[in-house]
TrEMBL record:
Gene3D superfamilies: Cysteine proteinases. The keyword Disulfide bond applies. This is Cysteine protease. SMART domains: Inhibitor_I29 (SM00848), Pept_C1 (SM00645). InterPro entries: Papain-like_cys_pep_sf (IPR038765), Pept_asp_AS (IPR025661), Pept_cys_AS (IPR000169), Pept_his_AS (IPR025660), Peptidase_C1A (IPR013128), Peptidase_C1A_C (IPR000668), Peptidase_C1A_papain-like (IPR039417), Prot_inhib_I29 (IPR013201). Residues 146-371 form the Peptidase C1A papain C-terminal domain. Belongs to the peptidase C1 family. GO terms for cellular component: lytic vacuole.
Amino acid sequence: MATRFALLFLSSLLIATSFRFSLAEADVTGSDDLLIRQVVDHGEENDVALGDNSLLNADHHFAVFKRKFGKVYGTQEEHDYRFTIFKANLHRARRHQKLDPSAVHGVTQFSDLTPREFRKHFLGVNRKLRLPSDAHKAPILPTNDLPTGFDWREHGAVTPVKNQGSCGSCWSFSTTGALEGANFLATGNLVSLSEQQLVDCDHECDPEEKGSCDSGCNGGLMNSALEYTLKAGGLMREEDYPYTGTDRGTCKLDKSKIAAKVSNFSVVTLDEEQIAANLVKNGPLAVAINAVYMQTYMKGVSCPYICSKRLDHGVLLVGYGDSGFAPIRMKEKPYWIIKNSWGPNWGEEGYYKICRGHNVCGVDSLVSTVAAVST
Ligand SMILES: *[C@@H]1O[C@H](CO)[C@@H](O)[C@H](O)[C@H]1NC(C)=O
């Protein structure tokens, strides 16, 4: 049966439409302000990156930020404008810390960007896109023998963390990551693949959704990119078609240099056991997520009490684990290990951990698994 996932969401505002009550272990849906305040009040400050008085030290934090990330602003006006945004982001980081006590939130390379700029330049799941109507569903796999923890990085299926730069091309990195893993499983070789080929050449559209096409730095969808890759015959190596971070170039595909080919791909059902089983069997998975907490994320397991399931970022699911983080009452909470495309200086050496078990931030909603041709 044809699968169509509705990726249209009612609001683009930062109104969380889905609430996760971690303490009560129950999903509550609604949009009640009182509920938000209660959850915030219960949030404990553990290992907080920003102390209570840190907002008084905004000048100092901004100076450290500029030095650390080599930020230079053209004019005094621009500098002052960025400082205003920076201060607002300090407040946001503190709010995120309260809503997400098992992670550490604070100053990141994105702290001088408004949420809108951040979404436009560093995310890139095109929400107008839906899954192609011919998307196949992955077969249901047995789950009784799944390991309690698994990490494809330990098995050589994951290339080093890459950097999409200021371009909404996350979808291309999620796609190459999944095919790099599948190609490794099929051939035994780990080959870094070209995102720029997807950015320049892939304009795959949904036949039933006019104007919904993969479009370089303006977003795309992993399933469409896999469809393109299947039709185009495969992807070239990163070194043969290097990343430029712009979508102003023309397509430079050289079919004689194709290094990995898609044999087939499918969509995994919204079930965390099935996602884990497909991960272990087929390699890293292309997934979409809501990235609002990622702008301030520094380390730890992100498990926000409130997170929208509006998908706006494409990443790579490479593994999962079972424990190993504070606070005590969450100690046994399992998590997913996610490879991001914002360079190794973001998060945990470029990686993000998000708790597993409740489709937090929509991480289970749009999961693609790929198989590569073994030649
Ligand atoms: C590819 O197709 C085979 C045969 O139909 C199927 O068993 C397998 O699950 C598919 N793999 C993926 C990743 O969709």
